[in-house]
């Protein structure tokens, strides 16, 4: 794809200057992307679901710690894949390179159709609910008000991401620090409670007192709930081409961020249980607000604001990374080519951002989104497993491929064993939810066959696509980016080992 400066009807240009995605993500911003995407609304939503399925305080804390450990194993595998296949797009790019177009398209289809719009909608609704909560203390905020504020927030952050990569990363840096400070406040207050002797729910005799005998299936569902809070640990891989020195900064950011988030999540849950009984936590629809009301007194207003800041940064991070997934899919020919274009001056993927924004607003308008969390978690887990299985397949088929990072085989094998157990028991416990997740993904098969593999389409379809692309280029002032010199050749270009 050639760089284009001056857009005409055929997409040609007169200048030779490069128009490429800018490498503006250093180590700090890379850590902020991972931490900012993981810490969104999950830590304020999932504790209730984890406790409900785990059945006891002690087991729920073990689930939170093990959930972070599973993410750490997965992130080590993704570090190897990220520097071996240095392309933006994360799971989608790796699976497409390793297993081919259909498998990659199915991951892309489920992500664009349900996974990221739904997650963005959930985070945006959490943001609006917490912002409006002080004005509606004795009742739930009106349906229209929450949707309207959530939509305004998504539109504003889409504009920011369209305007400047630097603005978007700076917002991510600032709000990541803000959300860490908010969680630090919860942790410090909780530890102070423990020092004062308020740890009844955390005492071993009470912590493992089960409300009901836990089944393996219920524990698996507790892990799925926790996985929603941890989702986003692989998002730096979606913007690899915009990372400064990715071979160094990609693994460093992962090694710093995942242990930090696991520690923060575990201590945050310990803090919750230092002031709330399991029954109180299960009865609360806003765990952080209930925590603040019990312990912070007149200063409790800080909790809704903290959660709002956290979710605001989460929305920004998800928009930033999910738009790059659309960009990568279009570049591979799996989505309309217009989505692979970037702004002539700002070098931002405006069409891809507008698609992500529109899909999120559509999800916001159709009604309740929280019921889709289990679908999202199941599809997420499925895509992680397929991607890491690809690492093992690549090791076998391309043993001589240059790998700047090469993890022990024990790491991906351990991850896949845990993945298979959790996914299998989740499927057994919630066959309808998991089955619908599979159906959503498989609906991409006919779309792939018609949209991608069918090359001899009627001429009027091609003319329509060209016209839409032309007007999209004029309206968004976008061109195809010129490919930068990659740090490693794509696998498809390499000779057989």
| CA(first)-CA(last) distance | 27 Å
User: How would a textbook summarize the main sheet?
Assistant: 2 strands, antiparallel
- Which strand order do you get reading across the main beta sheet? 1-2
User: Which stretches are poorly predicted, pLDDT < 50 over at least 5 residues?
Assistant: 1-17, 485-490, 492-497
Key descriptive features of the protein:
disordered N terminus; 497 residues; two-stranded antiparallel sheet; globular; mainly alpha
Structure, explained:
With 497 residues, this protein is mainly alpha-helical. It has helices spanning 27-38, 42-54, 57-84, 91-99, 101-132, 143-163, 165-195, 204-207, 216-230, 246-275, 278-283, 287-295, 302-331, 350-365, 373-397, 410-429, 431-442, 444-453, 459-476; strands at 342-343, 478-479. It has a two-stranded antiparallel ribbon. The chain starts with 26 loop residues before the first helix and ends in an 18-residue tail after the last strand.
């Amino acid at each position: 794809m050639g760089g284009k400066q001056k857009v005409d009807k055929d997409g040609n240009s007169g200048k030779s200057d490069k128009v490429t995605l800018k490498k503006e993500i250093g180590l700090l911003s890379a850590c902020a992307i991972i931490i900012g995407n993981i810490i969104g609304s999950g830590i304020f939503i999932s504790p209730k679901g984890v406790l409900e399925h785990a059945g006891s305080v002690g087991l729920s804390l073990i689930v939170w710690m093990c959930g972070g450990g599973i993410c750490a194993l997965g992130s080590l595998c993704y570090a190897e894949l990220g520097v071996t296949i240095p392309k933006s797009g994360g799971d989608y790019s790796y699976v497409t390179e390793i297993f081919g177009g259909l498998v990659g398209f199915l991951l892309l289809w489920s992500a664009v159709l349900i996974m990221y719009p739904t997650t963005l909608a959930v985070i945006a609704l959490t943001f609006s609910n917490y912002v409006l909560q002080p004005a509606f203390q004795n009742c739930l905020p009106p349906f229209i008000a929450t949707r309207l504020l959530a939509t305004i927030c998504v539109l504003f952050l889409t504009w920011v991401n369209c305007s400047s990569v630097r603005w978007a990363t700076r917002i991510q840096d600032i709000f990541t620090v803000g959300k860490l400070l908010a969680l630090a406040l919860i942790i410090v207050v909780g530890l102070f409670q423990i020092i004062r002797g308020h740890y009844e729910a955390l005492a071993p005799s009470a912590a493992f007192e089960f409300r009901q005998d836990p089944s393996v299936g219920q524990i698996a569902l507790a892990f799925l709930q926790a996985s929603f809070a941890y989702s986003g640990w692989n998002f730096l891989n979606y913007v690899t081409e915009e990372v400064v020195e990715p071979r160094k900064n990609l693994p460093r950011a992962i090694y710093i961020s995942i242990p930090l988030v696991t520690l923060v999540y575990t201590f945050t849950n310990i803090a919750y249980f230092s002031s709330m009984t399991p029954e109180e936590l299960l009865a609360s629809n806003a765990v952080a607000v209930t925590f603040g009301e019990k312990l912070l007194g007149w200063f409790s207003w800080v909790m809704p604001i903290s959660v709002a800041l956290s979710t605001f940064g989460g929305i920004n991070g998800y928009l930033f990374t999910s738009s790059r997934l659309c960009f990568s899919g279009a570049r591979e020919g799996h989505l309309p080519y217009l989505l692979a274009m970037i702004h002539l001056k700002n070098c931002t993927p405006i069409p891809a951002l507008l698609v992500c924004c529109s899909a999120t607003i559509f999800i916001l308008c159709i009604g309740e989104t929280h019921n889709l969390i289990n679908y999202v978690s199941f599809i997420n887990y499925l895509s992680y497993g397929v991607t890491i299985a690809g690492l093992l397949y690549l090791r076998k088929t391309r043993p001589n491929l240059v790998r700047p990072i090469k993890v022990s085989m024990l790491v991906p094998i351990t991850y896949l064993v845990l993945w298979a157990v959790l996914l299998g028991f989740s499927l057994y416990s919630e066959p309808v939810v998991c089955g619908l997740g599979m159906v959503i993904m498989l609906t991409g098969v006919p779309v792939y066959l018609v949209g991608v593999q069918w090359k001899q389409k009627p001429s009027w379809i091609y003319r329509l696509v060209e016209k839409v692309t032309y007007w999209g280029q004029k309206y968004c002032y976008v061109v195809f980016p010129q490919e930068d010199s990659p740090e490693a050749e794509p696998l498809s270009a390499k000779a057989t080992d």
